[in-house]
Amino acid sequence: MQLNSAPQQSESFLLTTEPSQEDAANRGKEAFEVSPTKPSLLSSHGEGKHDRFLGQRGNPLAFQKSEELQKILFAHRHERHLVILQDFPDPDALSCAWTYQLIVQQYDIKCEIIYAGTLSHQENIALVKLTGLPAQRWTSQVLKSKDLSSYQGCILIDNQGTTSQLMSAVQQAKIPVIAVIDHHTLQAEHKSEFVDIRPNVRATSTIFTQYLQSGLLSLDSSVSQHVKCATALMHGLRSDTNRLMQAQEEDFMAAAYLSRFYDAQLLNAILQANRSKRVMDVIERSLKNRIVQNNFSIAGVGYLRYEDRDAIPQAADFLVTEENVHTAVVYGIVHDENELEVVIGSLRTAKLTLDPDEFIKEAFGKDSTGRFFGGGRTGAGGFEIPMGFLSGSNENSTYAKMKWEVYDAQIKQKLLKLVNPQDDPIKSD
Ligand SMILES: [Mn+2]
């Protein structure tokens, strides 16, 4: 891993928001006629037959899930749906949501891709700008202006609803969950018509590429949107597999398929996005503050702005490259322009036997409502700890410093308990 490429991004958990307007009326007006024969995967054309064979041979589950999803989409044709992403969407989430949108257009389903937080990582901003990826930011103000009763369903992609603050509004509006498609560890039982959760797959982009290969949508390299979407998927796949270094056979198969359609130059342009000075400063602080024990590198970086939140996983990506370090945890207090503050942390590990999901859950436990403060997937994890009553009021720097020190000490204490199990007072020898 190099400093100039930090592909893995944040795992996010609850945060509140700031304004930005998206005009719901600007959604595409095109309506596709869906013939009753359309839903059969056998009706797909072009390279479909060959790809179907690949999908089937390579992965019967993927083929079966594609078929199942197709039936559900057919049953929901002509509806309006919301695709809900985690608050700080990463390339895997963004590209899959876009793929989903292109798939369901064939069923005259209009879906809006929404997230509540912000695009923080420079590569994500570049991805969205350079490909024209149609994701909308729904802050609490935007949410208030929306008539949720006009949506007949919602879809969770690359998350299971635990990392989006939009979920409570969607649940209140009684919008049913139609599909959950994810590769994170199962977070809860889902009351959803369609569930495709495969924690053994490294990226949701792999799952979506398999849907494409099964014939849910025939990519056409003469269609610019398809090329851009394939490029986004390639970026998502690379990003969640540490540039394919953690990829497994099916991820490579998916990348091989995408290689027929993606635009290498466009991908390069996305990856060239530079870090801001403030992100560099956070990385510098993480280097200065890190403590290394038992191959774990732990660094608190103090306060940082909401829009620089992704500096935390990028710092963790960097710290884990140190010799004799297999796992890095970086955390800080993220604040927005209001009073909101939250402790956010990221874990990166190169140790195959360390399960980030288990580690984070064990280290920080649950809040009073029984919800875990964080979780993870292969190689990466994250946590968010709301600060409640202690939030804000940092005009007094002594107070701000004191508050940071308390959180810093508490987080270190919880992490070190797991890092140094020999500190257990009960010793057998
Ligand atoms: Mn992912």
From TrEMBL:
Stored InterPro entries: DDH_dom, DHH_sf, Oligoribo/pAp-PDE_c-di-AMP_PDE
Pfam families on file: DHH
Bias type Polar residues, positions: 1-19
Highest taxon listed in the record's lineage: Bacteria
Name the UniProt record assigns to this protein: Bifunctional oligoribonuclease/PAP phosphatase NrnA
PANTHER family according to UniProt: BIFUNCTIONAL OLIGORIBONUCLEASE AND PAP PHOSPHATASE NRNA
Disordered, as annotated region: 1-49
Sequence ranges assigned to domain DDH in this UniProt record: 83-236
The species this protein was found in: Anabaenopsis elenkinii CCIBt3563
